[in-house]
Write a structure and sequence with these properties.
It is built from 25 helices and 20 strands. By secondary structure, the chain is of the alpha+beta class. It folds into four domains: about 140 residues, Jelly Rolls (Sandwich), CATH 2.60.120; about 150 residues, CBS-domain (Roll), CATH 3.10.580.10; about 180 residues, Beta Polymerase, domain 2 (2-Layer Sandwich); about 150 residues, Four Helix Bundle (Hemerythrin (Met), subunit A), CATH 1.20.120. The protein has a four-stranded antiparallel β-sheet.
Length: about 625
């Protein structure tokens, strides 16, 4: 029988947090703990109803149904804190869906008699469990459109080639912002949907309300059923264009942590997609891994999830994904890992003495991470009001940095050899000190200042009070205006990293050491490209930090010709894909991934393309050297 651990776990979950101690203890006493290995079917479609309630302690399950033609239809994925079961069935009714463990899963299980007795004694919980969590027999399976059937039977590249409008549900359920949450819940239950688009008085989409919103923002905090839906909806509304690819929609859902995306065709609401739709489109989805990460409660569990990234990348490479797509998925998953690590650390330490923002920079800031990536993080916190608060902040954020950096290391992210991490007191500071540091680097760009600037200036806020990161970013852009002295220092640094071309246009390989006859793709190709684009971005004072984003912004601003912008984008994609495939193959052979490739192992077309990229970068660097007269050093 589970003990204190189950009680403390359930105390944090909706709806159990609504129970008093006596009621919760009584329910815990009826539970047993069961471990289901990955792949095991917990419940099978067609079997007699077991009338049980399962509360997931750790892991992920998928709920699906098999059609008469043998096709699987994924209904839901559920993780830690969520429930499943068939309490609403009669004892002789067969189960009409299957439940399978996606990962090793631990559940607290109550048999039907105990669960129903518990609900009978607490009728306020019935509305939470019975209608929302257990599909009713008569509901059957949602109809599948011909477009979805075609997608399900289509090629492996469907994720990247299918416009999201073909996956979207056309019959979008909407509710007025003035409607009550009770009316919204009743409409969701009647239409068997997990979300409603909230429209304003003009009938335009204003937000979205989901079953999660109703649970967490109404039931869990005991708000009145007459509360207007507009007060609990998620806003502003995150949408996707009808002709955007399914992959773009999936990334947007991952980045914003949402399960539903309204699909817009111009200003018209054309449909809605949910995470379930992508799980139908693609049996193994980044969303599965993202939801698994969110349900993890230990660093060990997060480390296990981090190791699954290779399998996810293998799938994307098999489907023909470009480097940009793979990099964005890796970065999105890494963001989720770091978010969850920070949440666990904050649960351990308690609330901070002052607001803070955890920032990432370098490849993480540009969202350009691959398999081999180290930690680039820092802390910006609000300015203390007095010495006592300053001391408390220094101690608290020092402990936070140690917990997070150690956890990230255990998840496979190496320590930064240059010490550019939050564990370094220099990289956790109040906002005013960060502003002084940035201004100092720009005003006096010596070697140390330049190293700091080229690492930190590509930063973005990841967790906490993002307004602190936004204010620091605004200060940076104001400080860069008219700073020709700093720009020349950046240009001098850029021309020091040349692509590996010999006198006759041949690729120059390393002459000795462990990587003799190889080329370092990162140092010799990607770094020069990133440096060139970053300098141009600084010149135009762009807010964008990613390399391809900067290229697009420079093209739109007229700072890059269309042909040059296309060449740089293709160069970044090509070299990045070579690097990812190389690292992926190394990991498959249980080797430590690196950035060194042997040009002799490349195809003639790949070698020719690589030479062309090196010539392009050399021309651009020669132009920068001439424009900034870098032969005359600062």
């Amino acid at each position: 029988m589970p003990g204190t651990g189950a009680r403390e776990f359930l105390r944090e979950q909706a709806p159990f947090r609504l129970l008093d101690d006596e009621a919760l203890d009584g329910f815990v006493g009826s539970l047993r703990m069961v471990v289901y290995p990955s792949g095991v079917h917990i419940l099978r479609q067609g079997a007699p109803s077991c009338r049980t309630l399962h509360v997931i302690r750790e892991g992920t399950v998928r709920i699906y149904a098999t059609t008469p033609t043998g096709q699987e239809r994924v209904i839901d994925f559920r993780g830690a804190g969520e429930s499943f079961g068939f309490l609403s069935r009669g004892e002789d009714d067969p189960i009409d869906t299957s439940v399978q463990a996606v990962t090793d899963t631990v559940c607290y299980v109550a048999d039907g008699a105990a669960a129903l007795a518990f609900l009978d004694g607490h009728p306020e919980l019935k509305e939470y469990f019975l209608p929302a969590y257990f599909p009713k027999k008569e509901a059957g399976l949602s109809p599948v459109s011909p477009a979805r059937e075609a997608i399900g039977e289509g090629s492996e590249t469907a994720l990247f080639t299918t416009p999201v409008e073909y996956l979207a549900t056309r019959d979008v359920q909407t509710v007025s912002s003035s409607a009550t949450v009770l009316e919204a819940a009743q409409l969701m239950s009647a239409r068997r949907v997990g979300g409603l688009v909230v429209v304003d008085e003009s009938g335009l989409p204003a937000g979205i309300v989901t079953s999660t919103d109703l649970r967490d923002r109404v039931l869990a905090v005991q708000r009145s059923p007459s509360t207007p839906a507009g007060e609990v909806m998620s806003a502003p509304l995150i949408t996707v264009g009808a002709r955007d690819s399914c992959f773009e929609a999936l990334l947007k859902m991952m980045s914003h942590g949402v399960d539903h995306l309204p699909v817009m065709d111009g200003g018209r609401l054309a449909g809605i997609v949910s995470c379930h739709d992508f799980l139908v489109l693609q049996g193994t989805s980044p969303l599965v891994l993202a939801r698994e990460i969110e349900g993890r409660t230990t660093v060990e569990g997060l480390a296990a999830s981090a190791r699954r990234v290779r399998g996810l990348v293998s799938l994307l490479l098999r489907e023909g994904a470009g480097a940009g797509s793979v990099i964005r998925v890796i970065s999105a998953v890494n963001d989720r890992l770091e978010h969850r690590i920070l949440e666990l650390a904050l649960e351990t330490l308690g609330p901070p003495p002052v607001p803070f923002c955890w920032i990432v920079y370098g490849s993480a800031g540009r969202r350009e991470q691959t398999f081999k990536t180290d930690q680039d993080n820092a802390i910006v916190h609000a300015d203390p009001r007095n010495d006592e608060e300053a001391q408390a902040a220094a101690e608290y954020f020092g402990r936070l940095a140690e917990l997070v950096v150690d956890a990230f290391l255990r998840c496979g992210f190496a320590l930064c050899r240059g010490g550019f991490m939050a564990t370094n007191p220099e990289w956790r500071a109040p906002l005013a000190r960060w502003k002084r540091t940035f201004s100092g680097w720009i005003g006096t760009p010596d070697e140390a200042a330049l190293a700091g600037a080229l690492n930190l200036f590509d930063f973005r806020g990841l967790h906490g009070d993002l307004r602190l990161a936004a204010e620091l970013k605004l200060h940076l852009h104001r400080s860069l205006e008219g700073q020709s002295f700093f720009l020349k220092a950046v240009a001098c640094q850029a021309v020091d990293y040349r692509p590996p071309l010999g006198l006759f246009g041949t690729l120059q390989m390393e002459k000795g050491g462990d990587h003799a006859n190889q080329i370092d793709l990162k140092r010799c190709c990607l770094t020069p490209l990133v440096n060139v684009v970053r300098l141009l971005g600084f010149e135009s004072n762009l807010a964008e930090t990613s390399t391809t984003g900067r290229i697009a912004a420079l093209r739109s601003a007229g700072r890059l010709a269309q042909a040059t912008a296309d060449d740089l984008t293709h160069a970044f994609e090509f070299v990045s894909l070579l690097r990812i495939r190389h690292q992926h193959d190394q990991i498959a052979m249980d080797l430590e991934p690196d950035n060194h490739v042997d040009p002799r192992q490349l195809s003639s077309l790949e070698r020719s393309t690589l030479k062309g990229i090196c010539r392009l970068l050399s021309r651009l660097l020669d132009g920068i050297a001439e424009r900034y007269a870098t032969d005359t050093r600062i």
